[in-house]
């Protein structure tokens, strides 16, 4: 009888997962159709003109891959129409990968965590699908960085060929050196967690050290040394960028990445947008911040040993790698999405690893919230925030910021 009960439970769980995945697929497609604008911004198409044939330079991996595809296929890929087709295929594969990650999470988590994980996956997918469907970030290199970190998370969770985390993290930096601050934290936090949880401390200590060191060395190379010969190739890169872009290439991207020109002074005026919009976003997002704060407070408080407390403290502060970006850079929409991605992917990964304390606290949060009569508002709030953009966090916060500026601040004359 026990075997049959277990089998029935497994079948019920499988059917629940299948139903949820069907709903998630339909929902994600609807979000994509709603936000898709059939355009690649000049910033994202210009990135394809960068290539390692001009030297081992920053942000050139995507362009190198694109040029290799151009050599393999019997068509000329160096025009905007083909760039659009390539972007559509890659984005579709990325969304398929997100679905696979979601399925793997639900398949491996404990049954009590199934519903909470479904809601967390649903929350994450709202933002991920809308962000990479909309015109601002369609085919942005962030898509590849997210994919790399999620693959690293799966390798660590499943404990298969975990050494691949080291070269994969290097690949993330080769897509964009900002990976070190934005998404490398996922792999580092999970490796630190494994180091404190597992008897194989030497293994995970070495993996952590190599992942951090290799990524940091590449970051320093791209930031300090990779642009010395850019002037020799600038005209050729501009010519390709024109062919790959619909309405003109992105001049400032090439000036910075090819010629190494510091654009810090030109960006100072845009900082005012961040100063106005970020407090507005934070205020509107407070319900989710409060839920996360309560989750981690209970998680750390109820941990039985000091080692367990340290594990969860590391998970909590892991998103702190984003602080330099918030302090020095402008694309707050991307930074906020990176923070949300970190917490979503890491918590889901811990659920896949069947962490008892995380499972208990996630279930507690879900049960306490589901009994509230206003819970439906938490599902409506994300509508105000999708899709995320870059300097302007999103359309809604942009409009609020413009209203505040026009009535009180008068900072936006430069726009």
CA gyration radius, whole angstroms: 22 Å
Biggest sheet descriptor: none
* Beta-strand residue fraction: under 5%
Low-confidence stretches: none
How many helical elements?
A: 21
Order of helices and strands: HHHHHHHHHHHHHHHHHHHHH
Number of DSSP strand runs: 0
Shape: globular
Average pLDDT level: 92
Distance between the termini: 71 Å
Helix percentage = over 70%
| SS-based class | mainly alpha
SSE blueprint:
Layout: H1 2-35, H2 42-46, H3 61-72, H4 80-108, H5 114-131, H6 142-158, H7 165-175, H8 179-182, H9 184-197, H10 201-224, H11 230-244, H12 251-257, H13 264-267, H14 271-284, H15 286-301, H16 306-317, H17 323-328, H18 332-352, H19 356-370, H20 375-380, H21 395-409
Supply the key terms.
mainly alpha, 21 helices, 415 residues
Give the structure's gist in a few sentences.
The protein is mostly helical and 415 residues long.
Describe what you observe in this structure:
The chain is built from 21 helices and no strands. The chain is mainly alpha-helical and 415 residues long. Among the domains are: 1-140, no CATH class; 266-415, no CATH class. α1 packs parallel to α5 (114-131). The longest helix has 34 residues, at 2-35. The chain starts with a helix and ends in a 6-residue tail after the last helix. The model has no long low-confidence stretch (mean pLDDT 92).
């Amino acid at each position: 009888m026990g075997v049959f009960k277990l089998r029935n439970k497994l079948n019920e769980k499988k059917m629940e997962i299948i139903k949820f995945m069907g709903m998630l697929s339909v929902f994600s497609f609807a979000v994509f159709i709603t936000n898709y604008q059939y355009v690649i911004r000049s910033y994202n198409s210009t990135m394809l003109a960068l290539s390692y044939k001009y030297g081992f330079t920053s942000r050139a991996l995507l362009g190198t891959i694109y040029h290799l595809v151009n050599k393999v296929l019997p068509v000329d890929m160096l025009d905007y129409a083909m760039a659009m087709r390539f972007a559509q295929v890659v984005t579709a594969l990325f969304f398929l990968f997100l679905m696979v990650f979601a399925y793997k999470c639900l398949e491996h988590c404990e049954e009590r965590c199934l519903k909470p994980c479904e809601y967390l996956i649903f929350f994450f997918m709202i933002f991920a699908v809308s962000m990479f469907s909309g015109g601002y970030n369609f085919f942005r290199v962030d898509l590849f960085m997210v994919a790399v970190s999620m693959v690293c998370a799966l390798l660590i969770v499943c404990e298969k060929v975990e050494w691949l985390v080291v070269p994969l993290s290097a690949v993330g930096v080769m897509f964009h050196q900002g990976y070190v601050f934005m998404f490398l934290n996922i792999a580092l936090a999970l490796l630190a967690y494994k180091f404190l949880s597992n008897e194989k401390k030497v293994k995970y200590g070495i993996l952590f050290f190599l992942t951090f060191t290799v990524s940091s060395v590449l970051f320093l190379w791209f930031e300090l040394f990779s642009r010395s010969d850019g002037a020799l190739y600038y005209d050729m890169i501009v010519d390709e960028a024109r062919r790959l872009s619909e309405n003109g290439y992105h001049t400032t991207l090439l000036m910075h990445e090819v010629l190494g020109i510091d654009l810090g002074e030109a960006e100072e005026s845009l900082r005012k947008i961040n100063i106005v919009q970020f407090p507005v976003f934070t205020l509107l997002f407070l319900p989710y911040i409060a839920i996360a704060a309560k989750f981690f407070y209970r998680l750390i408080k109820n941990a039985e040993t000091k080692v367990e407390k340290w594990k969860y403290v590391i998970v909590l502060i892991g998103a702190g790698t984003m602080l330099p970006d918030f302090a020095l850079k402008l694309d707050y929409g991307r930074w906020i999405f990176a923070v949300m991605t970190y917490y979503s992917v890491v918590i889901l990964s811990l659920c896949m690893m069947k962490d008892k304390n995380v499972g208990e606290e996630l279930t507690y949060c879900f049960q306490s919230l589901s009994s509230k009569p206003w819970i439906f508002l938490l599902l409506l709030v994300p509508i105000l925030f999708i899709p995320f953009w870059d300097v302007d966090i999103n359309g809604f916060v942009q409009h609020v910021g413009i209203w505040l500026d026009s009535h009180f601040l008068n900072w936006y004359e430069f726009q």
